[in-house]
Amino acid sequence: MKYLKYSIALIILLFCTSCSKEESLPKEPIVDLGGERWVNGPLDKFIYQEFIKSYNIEIKYKWTPFEINYNRTLVPPQEKRVIPVLTAVRDIWMKPYEKVAGKGFLKRYSLSKFILVGSAEYQNNGTIILGTAEGGTKVVLYVVNDFELSNPDAVSQMLHTIHHEFAHILHQNIHYPQAWRGISTAWYTQTWFNTPEETANSQGFVSSYAKSAEQEDFVETIAYLLVEGQEKFDALVKANAPVEATFRLKESIVVQYYKEVFNIDFRALQREVRAAFLSLTKPTTK
User: 0.90 cut: is pTM over it?
Assistant: First the structure.
């Protein structure tokens, strides 16, 4: 009891000491706590018209540390990159789904927010994060400052990330088929980053990252088929003939999943995504 009395007395003393200390409140508004004011420009009007009004999707491009991993060094997106990124997102992800699955599909399985980050998020193991999906509603897109519509590789990387994360949202709503389990279980590993891409391909994976977990294998396969297209997938399978059966089984499960669960013709979606990609990245002639 004596220890308890001393403890209470110490707490009271500390409380009184802290209360007696007077510090002036900051005059500048604290970021993301309601004090910011800015005039809406063409970028904000584009976001409102194409994303908020049409799909009720919030786009956060102004820097806010509370939406990202503050334990990592990250940089804000350059404003000049935002419309090109969002144009690609709209044309290569949203419009194909809307055309093939109907206008209500993205509203039913909708994201509520995109957070744009200028740089990649570097991990302690030497890998980088290009995108994350949280709670089935929010997607964080990284490396925005490296994005150029004239660079097909940059567009492919960004849209692969989008389709990858959206596929996560789909299977979080309705799980992928049990038939997927056991196909490549022996190859999954937390140290996937130690596997060269060619080795992963020879084991029946579209990428090294697909080896990280069963669900990552599933969504990586979807993203690869949609963004890279059937021709490139067929070439990948041909180059890895010993595991052709593995690739084809995964492909057939993806096609079946979209049809049976969402009534979506995956082949039609694949054609629309690929056509939009080629159209958007086509060099302009002067």
Answer: no
